[in-house]
Amino acid sequence: MAFTYDPNAANSSAAKVDTSRKLRIGIIGTGWIADAHIASYKKMPDVEIVAGADLIPGKAAAFFKKHGVEGVKTDYASHKEMLADKSLQLDAVSVCTYNRTHAVCAIDSMKAGVHVLLEKPMCVTTEEAIEICRAEKETGKVLSIGFQPRLDENMKMIKKIVDSGELGQIYYIQTGGGRRRGIPTPFGTTFIEDKTAGLGALGDIGCYSLDMVLNAIGYPKPLTVSGWKSDFFGKDPSYSNYVKTGHPEYASLFGVDDFAAAFVRLEGGIILDFRIAWAMNMDTCGDTLILGTKGGLRIPSTECWNGSVGGAMKIYHEVCGSQVCTEIPIIPEDRNMSLFDKKIRSFLDACKGIAPIPVPSSQILYNQAIIDGIAKSSAIGKEIAIEIPEI
Question: Which domains does the chain have, with CATH numbers?
Answer without folding.
Answer: 23-147+340-358 (3.40.50.720), 149-335+367-385 (3.30.360.10)
